[in-house]
Amino acid sequence: MALLLKGGRIVDPAVGLDRVADMIVRDGRVVEIGEDLSIPKGVTIECAEKVVVPGLVDVHVHLREPGREYAETIASGTRAAAHGGFTAVCAMPNTTPVCDTGSKVRFVIERAEETGVVRVHPLGALTKGSAGEALAEIGDMVVEGAVAFTDDGHGVTDAGMMRRVMDYARAFDAVVASHCEDASLAGRGVVNEGVVSTRLGLPGQPAAAEEVQVARDLRLAELTGCRLHLQHLSTAGSLELVRAAKERGVPVTCEVTPHHLFLDEDAIGPSYDTDLKMNPPLRTAADRQALVAAVLEGTVDCIASDHAPHGPHEKALEFELAPFGTTGLETALSLVVTHLVHPGELDWADLVRLMATGPRAVFGLPEVRLEAGAVADITVIDPEARVEVTKEWFVSSSANSAFLGGTLLGKATDVLVGGRFALRNGKVVD
Amino acid sequence: MTALSSRHIISMDDLSADDITLILDTAESFAEVNERRIKKLPTLRGRTVINLFLEPSTRTRTSFEIAAKRLSADAINMTGSASATVKGESLRDTAATLSAMACDLIVVRHSYAGAPHVLTECMDAHVVNGGDGMHQHPTQALLDLFTMRRRASRLEGLTVGIVGDIAHSRVAGSLVPALLTVGATPVIIAPPTLLPARPDVLGAEVSTSLDEALPALDVAYMLRIQMERAEGMPFPSLREYARFYGMNEARLAAAKPDMFVMHPGPMNRGVEVSSGVADSPRTVVLDQVNAGVAVRMAVMYLLLGGEGGGAAA
């Protein structure tokens, strides 16, 4: 089938492209980009006033399958991804059981092929059961298709264990992704340690709980030469450490989440809204501003949602008992467009770097360049479309969003994965 | 002013200075009733008060129960543990169930901050926070104000030292804002390991030395030390704690002559207060307990808008 994307603003800094043009897609690939193109038969997508970009990728997603299918499945999570404008997601391994062997990686890939609507790239665990005690079968998982490794959900407590993981991963040129949290400092903390923990009487985790492991893992990356990706950084201090490490040539990349970019701890009030409970916690306004600055200056390699769906019965608990996490797949793009692109802080090329090119580079995923011959993973964005963030708006099985009740400007209208519609006119295509 | 500005008492932030004065004045009249041989008033006859205590407590629960019964309300105690609600029925379902039984007022004690707010979202009843996690314990602060006002004949201008485990204390969590509302000066005194992350946001003065802060104090409020902690003790020994942060005879002698000592109970004698201080006439711990019943009667009466309130009318 042939597709004609008509009259969109096509943006891809990787090929120096930012102009209004037409694009023809045939047999899953981009065939031609140019002016006044037409196709004898096929489907024309009217893209006037829209922005056409390489398919967006979210490198930090919890799909919950296997184990907690009531909160999300590979089927529902990939539909949520398409709804949010993503053509690919990276699935975290902290499922039940933990994805820590090649066969479990295979399961995710096969389920995604059977039931998913966007690409799914699984990560494997660093250690068996993510328990931090013994190396997981990293080589086996690489062969079966894991794109990187992490014990996400918590930090690797023992520095010696982390060093062994990074040494071993190097044999397979694997990227180690790190959730930085020193358990002895974070303790039972459920919010940032500071004003809100003091006011609301909640146990806090200090910024230092994240930063000491960031510093440690950067040193270990230098020691071992292993490629390190730092997940969901949330503090000004962490970004400072990364900035300095990049300057001295440490092989490190990092991501930040929309909720850490656009919310701070002051959002948590006397109603103890558990949708605002996430790990790392929402930090101070100063941290938030430092994260935005790091995005603008280029220290941050990508924006990732840390999409963490939970069932309503889990989030309806007391704040200290409710699980950590907010959903994010369906709001990430709209938030970035609303808060950074519309105000002129970022241009569309920056958005492509942060949400398409950057994330692919982080885990070495195949490049998508908008030129003839490229795989047609494409996202079409209507910058002026309004999104009312309500529970009903979500395609995800869960609606535990920190942004419920908000109004956003800009969303994906069409998503092509290998030339096939995953989203068309704002509706997910099965 | 004859009515409270809030239909629940979850935190001291719910109460204005006028609210506090109304509660304390109402409690004064109930305190008189508590001196009588027949201590019961018909005020809340036919009203149902549930004491939902999901954390071990004898003193506070008993105080609320006596308060409800002296007003002729039907008081029912429900006990359990917050952790049991994790595996079994959720707090929201418990609340909805109690609401369906048409209770008028619920007192809740819970191990986790914010639990009373959850009840306000799923019940029609008035909710009184009987202590939530490390957050607040407003009726304790009210009975403390009542006791201070009686002893010092004023609240405005008092300097109140709150000594000990500020970081984990819901008593301090309510007392500090309560004192600020009535124009008193709270000073929180503790080793840094027992201070909250940002004591400045509470609005209290902060000191790490009891001896330095002592001369300015009109009231020394000694917080209870929790003897067992999963994360390890925040000081080297009880002996060392008592040496630097305990109230003893020598410190009492060094303080203002009319300074008095308070404690929310139960006391660890020899730790927060020496035995001699505990039994001294300058310690008003039993006055606090006595005030607790009157203040809780006042809170229930005012929230439920009791009529024909006998002594309180």
* Percent of residues in β-strands of chain B: 5-15%
What is the CATH architecture assignment of the largest domain in chain B?
A: 3-Layer(aba) Sandwich
- Rg over CA atoms of chain B: 19 Å
> What does the largest sheet of chain A look like?
9 strands, mixed
Number of domains of chain B: 2
Cα-based radius of gyration of chain A, to the nearest Å:
21 Å
Query: What structural class is derived from the secondary structure elements of chain B?
Result: alpha/beta
| Widest beta sheet: strand line-up of chain B | 7-6-5-8-9
Shape of chain B: globular
Per the principal axes of the C-alpha atoms, what is the gross shape of chain A? globular
Q: Can you count the helices of chain B?
A: 12
Q: What's the CATH class label of the largest domain in chain B?
A: Alpha Beta
Per CATH, what is the topology of the largest domain in chain B? Rossmann fold
CATH superfamily of the largest domain in chain B: Aspartate/ornithine carbamoyltransferase
The low-confidence parts of chain A are: none
Query: Mean pLDDT score of chain B, rounded?
Result: 92
Helical proportion of chain A? 25-40%
